Amino acid sequence: MQGIVDGYLAVVRVGEGKAFGGMTLFPVFRQGESPLRYRTLGEALLGGSVEVRERPSASVPELWLVNRSDEMVLVMDGEEIVGGKQNRMVNASFLIAPKSEVALPVTCVEHGRWHDVAPNFMAGEAAPAFLRRAKETQVKENLRAAARPMADQGAVWDAIAEKQRVEGVHSRTGAMNDLYQQKAKSLEEYQRAFPVVDGAVGMAVALNGGMVGADLFDQAATAARLWPKLVRSYAMDVVAGREERPVARERAEKLLKRLVGARVETFPSIALGQDVRLEGDGANGAALVYEGIVVHLGVFRVHRRGAYGDATRVVRASTRRRMRGRIE
């Protein structure tokens, strides 16, 4: 499996970066085009051919996804699903087979609600980079221990609550989505500053002068559909008021090279393909691989100390138990 990821990275090219408001985005291009045909979750939900709902006996860490279409559906790691008894985020990237049903592993991102607001779910935002990075480590540990892509629910609640405190965002139910709603005007500025780049299969991103991560896909069409959502998710982690430093393209190239020859662990996906976890020199990765094709590769820069300031601190265990008690 390492050969497949290395082969993918060998043919990508990092373009010139563009900077705005503490964020630098480098478009990433790739030789060749994937033959896979699928729709993104947002497209499928909007079209009505895919339905996500609570299980008959509602469970926080799982939702039920029904794909009635003749096409595969890509669900992106960290993608938020809004509705049901509480909003959730998806724990890994999944490629859902046509005409199939699957129990979707998710994590709650709204700790203060456990009642229906809508019978079915709709696509929301994508989790901020700091949350996806922390969740990747949690999911990897659970794949090793129980072969199931589960996250640490309490730690996720803690991180969202602390981010809301740092940003001065009030949320009655502690919903991650309220961060995006209350910062919508600022995030729209980033979305305008970083429009879709034609031909790019993904992006590598630096925040406040330091590389943070990258999201790469098998084809440019997928990147274009998910681009605005990913831009907003990275922009959410910009630390206002920090000194901005220029970021050279070579640093984005180095981030991707950190996964070349990385330690690889492969796990069966709950849907199509394999869930591949990578540990490189200063970077971790999570890849969905199907029929020898890297469908989605998430890259997370790893530092010994937190790179996002107070937003990543975990609050005390008593707070975590109090949050957990609201839905148990």
Would you give an account of this structure?
By secondary structure, this protein is an alpha+beta fold. The chain has one domain. 30% of the residues lie in helices and 30% in strands. It is built from nine helices and 18 strands. It has helices spanning 2-10, 41-47, 129-146, 153-167, 176-182, 184-193, 220-235, 249-257, 317-325; strands at residues 12-14, 18-20, 23-30, 38-40, 50-53, 62-67, 72-75, 79-83, 88-90, 94-96, 100-108, 121-126, 202-207, 210-217, 263-268, 274-279, 283-290, 293-301. The strands form three sheets. Strands 1, 2, 3, 13, 14, 15, 16, 17 and 18 form a nine-stranded antiparallel beta sheet that branches. A six-stranded antiparallel beta sheet has the order 5-6-11-9-8-12. Helix 4 crosses helix 9 (317-325) and helix 6 (184-193) packs across helix 7. The longest helix is centred in the middle third of the chain and has 18 residues, at 129-146. The relative contact order is 0.19.
Keywords:
single chain, about 325 residues, alpha+beta, 9 helices, globular, disordered C terminus
